[in-house]
């Protein structure tokens, strides 16, 4: 058994194919789009490589692929936090602790060679890549953007010497959730006293025109979060290109104050059933299945919620939730999944308690000193 960096087309195909070989028959597994992983490996085109570096490894026994792992040095993140971390991502492995150990050793050597002192993850190049390994809630169906993993993955990572860094919780909420009248009354009072309003989107094209401002808003509102890494304009364009084809403009809530965006709540139609059918391939008919699922699904995924610091603690969060609930009858969606709330994010945990979210899934981010 040996671990080597992905450099050839054959190794790239092994990297892409391994999750399908390991989980392809499992009814809950949702494959990533092969296009997105291929793009992440493209040093000439992906904007990540303008400021940072990454390597991709496969573990092999002859021609048999046993595991895969990526590792990256996100220089803007390290500069912002004053750290020397390497992120790892794309962990997939057969149930063999020796294979996992060998891959983490290779990733650690790569990181140490760049002067880094710890390994943290799973964490990807972009904030939309999803965080952590599923450690609880294996029986619940996943949603788009949040991975399902087999139960043995956490044990392999811990056996390799990594320890818990943070947990991220996900769970369902009813779109028509019964909110007490006093919440609506408080929300209306805040809107009048502070002068809040909302920006409504009519088309995906209009959403794209605002994407640059939304990237800047992410940087301003998420910088206190454990998982935060800065995102630049080129990377925000990548995020927009990934999600705009499945966006329902009605599900984007922007809170405005004096013509400035001060808060946002983003939801996406859940197209995980279509991703299973197309097995991660957009061609020849993958796009058709995805766009059809956007019109059929009854579930949405809340992928982001944020408020500018100066607008926290004044009731703006109540106003945004109340607006979504009030307009729920206009949607065909009746279920929402709140995804990847870091358990140490006390304000967000309190917000989710308002709508009584039952946490059903737990993803864990790990850390190891080098």
- The assigned structural class equals alpha+beta
* General shape: globular
Strand runs, count: 13
CATH class of the largest domain: Alpha Beta
Description:
- This protein is an alpha+beta fold and 370 residues long.
- It folds into two domains: 2-170, Gcn5-related N-acetyltransferase (GNAT) (Aminopeptidase), CATH 3.40.630; 173-359, Gcn5-related N-acetyltransferase (GNAT) (Aminopeptidase, 3-Layer(aba) Sandwich), CATH 3.40.630.30.
- Helices cover 36% and strands 26% of the residues.
- It has 13 helices and 13 strands.
- It has helices at 9-23, 34-40, 75-81, 97-112, 152-159, 181-195, 204-209, 211-222, 233-243, 272-278, 286-296, 316-326, 346-354; strands at 2-5, 53-61, 64-73, 85-93, 118-121, 133-136, 163-174, 197-199, 252-257, 260-269, 299-307, 335-342, 361-369.
- Strands 1, 2, 3, 4, 5, 6, 7, 8, 9, 10, 11, 12 and 13 form a 13-stranded mixed β-sheet that branches.
- Strand 2 and strand 3 form a beta hairpin.
- The longest helix is centred in the N-terminal third of the chain and has 16 residues, at 97-112.
- The chain starts with a strand and ends with a strand.
- The relative contact order is 0.17.
